[in-house]
Every structure is written in structure tokens, then in C-alpha cells.
Amino acid sequence: IFVCNCVCNCVCVSELKESVGQIVCTEKGILAVEQNKVLQPPVWNKTFAWGYADLSCRLGNYESDKAVVVYECLSEWGQILCAICPNPKLVVTGGTSTAICVWETGTSKERAKTLTLKQALLGHTDAVTCLAASSAYHILVSGSRDRTCIIWDLNKLTFVTQLRGHRAPVSALCINELTGDIVSSAGTYIHVWSINGSPIASANTFTGRSQQILCCCVSEMNEWDTQNVIVTGHSDGVVGVTTSSSFLLIPTDWVFLGRFQIKYWSLAFCDITISSHFNTPNGNIQFS
């Protein structure tokens, strides 16, 4: 983990074994896990992991990194490419089957050993590449290689609407918990949609370099605050900052961190902006 000030002077405080996949800011500190892993709320002491050769998934302990339970029931749904845990009782997966699978976990020690398929959500025509959920607005959003996103009702597990108009496969999603606005990334473009699926704005972040957006996050200050920004992590090691003004997205700043060609895989906002990247052979986190 690297802590950086505004002029990008970095101090290494920790490292992960592999590239960083998720960063979570908690009252106790900043937690991070490798790719193909997500932390389970609200305690954040367990992880859900996928990407194994036998197509199994595993519930593990965050501190020890040891598998507590191995789930083999997911293999019939093909290769998992993304997963999220909207709450302690649900795990949502997406992948090559094009279906979004909503799984229910038991709260007791005995029931936690099994995953029960609660609902398979069908609507995409190609692999599902990213997922995001909002506990405040009770929605689930999926992004796909078919260049669309779908908003689902997280309570009823039903289709709400489809977001069309992406110029490339959707690579990253995030939801503003204050406003309900949805940010989707595809290629070098970012799009902002209302919670009802109406397009608000879009912008091309292309800077002339070979780059693709791999992750995104949005600041959640006061709803009316014009200083809220969208931050995007790119495949060429650039972190982009885009502001919203009068329903226009304006790329305003670009930060290059590190001496190597790096890929940013995860972003999160805390009291400071946090960005994580892949820096072979280990996964590091940078704070800027």
C-alpha cells in the first residue's frame, strides 16, 4: 500500500499478493482484497472469491486468507467474471452465461455452508462483466460485453430498464448513494444516468494514449455540491478526474502515478482519494 500526497510522493505501507480488486473504507480503516475477491458487509471480515479452475467459489477469512467454505454449485453457470455482496445475505454473480445469479447465504454457521439460487436474472446477450448495487436505492446494475447495462430492482429481483448507447463493452460501474445516479464506463467513455435510466451526460476521456477505463468511482459529498467528481482508473496508469457542470461532463485533471506501465483495477473514496493498481508482480494501493 502506498500513501501519496498531492505531489505524488509515495510511502509504501503494505502490499497484497496480487493485483488489487476491491477497496473498502470502514470506520476501522481501509481494507483491500485481490482481484476475483469481494468483501462481505457489514463487518467486512469475510471474503467471497471466484476464478478457480474448477469453477468453484469460496468464502474465506479476511485476516487469515483461509477458505472457510467451498461452493461447487455455481459451476453450471459457467465462468464467473464479477461478483458483489449487496448485503450479508446475498451474493450476486455474473459471467459468461450472460445471466446474473442472485444467491442467498445462510446466517447460521450450518446454513452458511450452502448457497441457494434465489433468482437468475436474464436480459443480456453477452457475458456480464461488472456489477454494482445500491443499498440506499435498492437497485442492482449489471454491465455487459453486449454494450448495455441493465437496472434491476434488488428487492423484487425484476427488470427495470436497459441503458443503451455505449460504444464498447461496459467495463466498470458505480452508483452514487446520495443521488442514485449511475456511472458506466465503456472504452474511453464515461456515461451518467439517472436512477430511472435517463441519460444525463457523457464524456470521452481519451487523451491520445492507448487507454481503456478499468474502474470508476464517484465522490459523495452534498448532493447539491458542484465539487463532486467522477474518478476513472485507466489501463495506461492514468487516473482521470471529471467534474459535472450544467449536465456536462468535463475531464479536468490527469494524474500519472508510478514509474511503470500500470493498470488501475479499483478505486474508492474516503477522506482522501484512494486508487489501486496492478504493478507486477505484486498488487499495491496508492493514496492521492
TrEMBL record:
Protein's UniProt name: Uncharacterized protein
The WD repeat ranges on this chain: 121-162
GO biological process, one term: aggrephagy
Keyword line: Repeat, WD repeat
Family annotation (InterPro entries): BEACH_domain_protein, WD40/YVTN_repeat-like_dom_sf, WD40_repeat_CS, WD40_repeat_dom_sf, WD40_rpt
Gene3D superfamilies: YVTN repeat-like/Quinoprotein amine dehydrogenase
Pfam families in the record: WD40
Domain of life: Eukaryota
